[in-house]
């Protein structure tokens, strides 16, 4: 199995890693440490099987001229009956177009019509904790809802990861996005 993930800027990544560490130290969640070298991310797509060489080639071409995406986390949420807690980014037109344009371009690779990452199914999120008991979920929610105010960052890179192994998710290939030109004319 493979996933395409959106990697966040260093400042935002550090905030989330600090939360992961604090949840671990408070004996609330071990999520961050269940997978070797886990990095904060937003999953954009998933695939059961993949021609990696062809996908990487297409990924390199498609993302060559794509710009970094501004992202703002205003809220936290949970999926029903999952024990998951996540930061939920503001759903902007730019974020939705970024996601849907990816799926349109890479449609031939979609081998799971029930994927939760397809357009019209996707709930963008950055996981803070997972598989928590109801008591730990409540504890994590209370902690995380008070820890931060709004977090503003960027999606700065996309990466294809191999999630075949339960305890590892190595990056197969990544592509940095272009910095936006902020010069006013």
From TrEMBL:
Keywords: Ligase
Pfam family, one: 2_5_RNA_ligase2
InterPro entries the UniProt entry points to: Cyclic_Pdiesterase (IPR009097)
A GO term for molecular function: ligase activity
Alphabetized SUPFAM superfamilies for the sequence: LigT-like
Domain of life: Bacteria
Alphabetized PANTHER family for the sequence: PTHR36039, RNA LIGASE_CYCLIC NUCLEOTIDE PHOSPHODIESTERASE FAMILY PROTEIN
The name this protein goes by in its record: 2'-5' RNA ligase family protein
Organism, as annotated: Psychrobacillus vulpis
Top-level taxonomy: Bacteria, Bacillati, Bacillota, Bacilli, Bacillales
